[in-house]
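INTERNAL AUDIT FORM
Audit reference: QA-55
Scope: verify that the stored structure record matches its stored sequence.
Auditor: D.O.
Record contents follow.
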Amino acid sequence: MTSTNTPKAFPLNLPEGDAELLLDELQTRLREGRRLFAEVGQILAEIESRGVQDLYGYNSIAVFYEHVARVPRAEAQKVTGRALALNSRRARDGTPIDPVAPLTGISAGTGALAEAGIDRIVTVMKRLPDHIDPDERLEAERGLVELAGVARPRDVTVAGTELLARHDPDGKPKEDPGPKRQRSEFWLRQKRTGSWDMRGNLDPETGARLNALLVPRAYPAPGGEADDRTPAERRGDAFAEIVDLAEAGPDIPAPRQTSERLAEAPQPAQPGEEPASRPKPTQAPPQGRQSPQGRGGEGVREGTAGERSRNVAHMRPARWWARLSRPRSGNATQPQRPLTA
C-alpha cells in the first residue's frame, strides 16, 4: 500500500525526472556548505590571534568551539586544528604565524575541498622535512590540492605517501625507548565475610620463584589417598604453607621505621668495646593481630595458626615474599584498620 503522506512536489520545487539538475543542486549546496565552514575556520583563527581567553575567558580555542558549537571535544579539536593550519594568524606578541598549508586554505575557501581531503593534505605538509625548498613545497601542495578536488581522500593519502617517500625516504627517526622497568603489583583486600581477596601482577623473576615454591606443595595428597581438594584449593593451601614458613624464618625483617627514628638510632659499638646501656629499638605501632613476641631458644611459637599470623606488608623487603606487598604511608593518629595492599 502506497503512503499518501509523500509530497507531490520536491521540497525545493525542482521538477521531477531531471537527474542532472538534482546532482547539480546537490553539488552546489555542498560547495556552499564547505565554503561557509571554511569561513568558520577563518573566524576561529582570528579569535585565536586576538586571544580567546581575553575575549571570552576560555583557556583554549578548542574548548571555546566545543561550547559554542555544542560538539564533542574530539570534533572541536579537529575543527580548530584544521582552522589554525589553513589560516595565517598572529601570536600574542604580534609575530605573524604562517599557515601549514596556504594553498589548501585558499582552495577550501571556495568550497572545492572536503574536510577529509583537507586533513590528509595538512598531515602530509606537516611531515615534509624542513630542508625542502619553499617553491618545491608549494608545488607539492598544489598537486595534492588539485587531486583532492576530484579524487577521494584515500587517493590523497596514497599520493601523500608517495610524496613523503620521495622527499624524505628515511622518515623521521624514532626514539628508541629504553627498557621499561617492570614492577610487581599486589592487592590484598578483606571482605565483609572476613576472608581476604588478593590479586596482583608479578615481574617474570618473582612469578617464577613463587611458582617454583607453589607447584611442589600443590600436588595431591601422596600415598594414593583421596584428595577432594580442587586445584585452586591445593594452591591456596600451598600459599598458606609458604606464608607460615616465611613467618617462622629466623631472618624475618624488622618493621620499617621512619627517618626520624633511624636518625636517633645509636651508633654501633667499636669492636672490643661494650656499651654501658643498649637502648631497645623503637618498634612501629602494632597493626592487626600480632604473634607472641617470645622467641626463646626452643625456636617454637605457641598458639594457633591464626595467632601466628602477622602483617608483613609494612616490612622492609628482604626476602622473596616481602616483594609481594608494597608499604603504604599512613597516619598514626587515624584509627587502626585492617592493613590492605
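Auditor finding: record pair retrieved intact. Strands lie at 89-90, 96-97, 185-190, 196-201.
Action required: none
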